[in-house]
């Protein structure tokens, strides 16, 4: 193996509306929590079980941050690709803390809205990608969403 890969792909629902901040340099930073869930039937009891994992997502990509700010709301289902990063910070009590996040960086990352909840916008307006991924043949929600077939002009 010649190298390593740090790539995270998630499909989940937003836990709350995104938090939009501006850095000192004027760049937009968007953060939100994303829930992913596994469900299964318990073999012993036969009961339906569910486990939810919460992921912290931070967007540093200006174009994706604009899409997130305009269209993401609590409960929306999204597909995203980013990288895993852990950062160290010191709390008010002086204790060192660590936070692991999925980061959609300035020139990397992808964000696709998978539902049309509370939105009457055209499908092409509901997805955002970094420019580098638009030309790479990356995953496209229009190909996998049968609702969108009616909007294709051919």
TrEMBL record:
Keywords tagged on the record: DNA damage, DNA recombination, DNA repair, DNA replication, DNA-binding
Molecular-function GO term, any one: DNA binding
Placement of sequence motif Important for interaction with partner proteins: 149-154
Residue ranges, annotated region (Disordered): 115-154
Compositional bias (Low complexity): 125-138
Residue ranges of DNA binding: 54-60
InterPro entries reported in the protein's UniProt record: NA-bd_OB-fold, Primosome_PriB/ssb, ssDNA-bd
Function comment: Plays an important role in DNA replication, recombination and repair. Binds to ssDNA and to an array of partner proteins to recruit them to their sites of action during DNA metabolism.
Binding partners and assembly: Homotetramer.
Record protein name field: Single-stranded DNA-binding protein
Organism: Acetobacter oryzifermentans
